[in-house]
Design goal:
Cytochrome Bc1 Complex, Chain D, domain 2, 424 residues, single chain, three-stranded antiparallel β-sheet, mainly alpha
Length: 424
């Protein structure tokens, strides 16, 4: 018995130490040294473009703050993570970082001092970025105005504030590795895959996560609730009811570039992504992303069939009356809308896959992003002040069950939960 206890005790102590030592000693970034650059001006131009593609500003710029000076708090299920200052200030930013240090963070999720970085920084996606592109982003970041602004500490709960525990997380969920082009796919497809899987880090929002914050199915883009904002990121797979279905590549490319298309419009966190990042990509890259996304395999998810009850029938009747009163002028009696000004509701996968987004839109209204392709977007007024929870549940249920949509009924309690959630 004593020997067994010693074996168990040794395993409890030795195994975590071995995992930690393994992660500390791994330096896959060293296999890809920086290469000389002949045209520095072209590198800077490319770096500015790639920083836009990665949407670095979204996290590293606080509202009303200086660009890239950090300070923006990012809420997670484990507490708040505060984005750091990445301007070239020597004391508070990354002014003392080398290109190798920057590459280590991008590719291996380790800081200049070797510390494990929290995966709120999406190095699980950025690891696919090439050394050449990482160096270009680094070179451009060196030209950003330096801002002296101290970094705030994260406010994570125990035990998540124990950074050394990330060694176990990384062992389970992170494997560094560059994007490897698929030989039997055309260059356009591979370019789209590189952007979607790497700098675009689309899986960070559009894939579900487990209790430890890791994507549960390898980032399959089958949709998922974004815990940091309480919006639902719809599936980007071609599933008929819950994904892109019969969307054409042109529809998707237009949505990514302008925020609106004949099929839908973006709101919530995706609105910021389009406004700050995707609208600035060239047409070839946006087209490549759309081509890649449309080629993804179906995930097989289907709406849950719901047996009609007297309660749901009453909700549908009430919802139909409310829709006629408040919604039909813009979205039409057949739910076809008037794209791109007023998005269609019939066959809208963002409405069917989850009740979260339509509830939040009815409560708070909103606008698609203002972009070069759609500088003056039409908006939707908030109906939260006009409707109680029962009424919002009824009209959302009607929308999710009409014109071929197959969403299940919404309960007033769901509406109540999101009525108090901040709009951001």
């Amino acid at each position: 018995m004593r020997r067994m206890l010693l074996v168990i005790l040794a395993a409890i102590i030795v195994l975590p130490l071995a995992v930690y030592a393994y992660q500390v000693m791994q330096h896959p970034d060293r296999a890809y040294p920086s290469q000389p650059v002949a045209d520095k001006a072209a590198q800077l131009q490319r770096g500015a473009y790639l920083a836009r593609a990665g949407d670095c500003m979204a996290c590293h710029t606080a509202r009303g703050g200086e660009p890239y000076a950090g300070g923006r708090g990012i809420a997670t299920p484990f507490g708040e993570v505060v984005a750091p200052n990445i301007t070239p200030d020597a004391q508070t930013g990354i002014g003392n970082w080398s290109a190798d240090d920057f590459w280590r963070a991008m590719h291996n999720g380790r800081g200049r001092d070797g510390r494990f970085l929290y995966p709120v920084f999406p190095y699980t996606s950025y690891t696919k970025v090439s050394r050449e592109d990482s160096d270009a982003i680094y070179a451009w970041m060196r030209t950003v105005p330096a801002v002296q602004q101290q970094n705030r500490e994260h406010a994570l709960r125990f035990p998540y504030n124990q950074r050394w525990l990330l060694a176990a997380w990384r062992t389970l969920y992170f494997k560094p590795g560059l994007y490897e082009p698929v030989g039997d796919k055309p260059a356009q497809w591979n370019r789209g895959a590189y952007l979607v899987q790497g700098l675009g880090h689309c899986a960070a929002c559009h894939s579900s996560r487990n209790a430890l914050g890791a994507t549960t199915t390898g980032g399959d883009l089958a949709g998922g609730l974004i815990p940091i904002s309480n919006w639902y990121a719809p599936a980007l797979t071609p599933d008929a009811a819950t994904g892109l279905g019969d969307w054409q590549v042109a529809d998707l490319a237009t949505l990514l570039k302008t925020g609106v298309s004949g099929r839908s419009a973006v709101y919530g966190p995706m609105s910021e992504v389009v406004q700050q990042s995707l609208q600035y990509l060239n047409d070839d890259d946006v087209q490549a992303m759309a081509v890649y996304l449309k080629s993804l395999p179906q995930h097989g998810l289907a709406p849950v069939a719901e047996v009609a009850t007297k309660d749901t029938e009453r909700m549908l009747e009430q919802g139909g009356r409310l829709y006629e009163k408040h919604c039909v002028e813009c979205h039409g009696a057949n739910g076809a809308g008037k794209p791109p000004a007023y998005p269609r509701l019939a066959g809208n996968h963002g409405i069917v896959a989850s009740s979260v987004n339509p509830i939040r839109m009815v409560l708070n209204g909103g606008y698609p992003p203002s972009t070069g392709g759609n500088p003056r977007p039409y908006g939707m007024p908030p109906y939260g002040p006009l409707m109680n929870d029962d009424e919002v549940a009824a009209v959302v249920t009607y929308i999710r069950a009409s014109w071929g949509n197959q969403g299940v009924a919404v309960r007033p309690g769901e509406v109540s939960r999101y009525r108090t959630v901040p709009i951001e």
